[in-house]
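Kindly review this protein for my students:
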Amino acid sequence: MDCYIVIFHPYRSLESIIPEGSRIPPTSNNGATGTNSTSGNAGAVDQSLPKDIRELYQTAWYILNDSYKTDVCLLYAPHSIAVSALYLACTIKDREKKPEVRQWFAELNLDMEEVKSVCVRLCDFM
């Protein structure tokens, strides 16, 4: 039996979210804004982004790395996995309960039940 499987990685989706994610209000308002200029690794985060946004991105990237030890890449769209990783990163950094962060996730117009389902699968691994 000969077969091929194509898996779309969630990293590019995370990279596309982060420029929008720069609108996530930083915990310390240093006025820095910018775009993400990553080229495939988490160490290339645009340094003009606020420090806590860079930390969220880095944490989400690590979560995406760990997601390959689960079956989420086979069950969910890459964008859903990326948003779930970012949501988990916000949870780890105690940012998910802030009204502005909740508003930002609401503006993404995603099925939050699907995000919750991905988060549960990822947390089952951790």
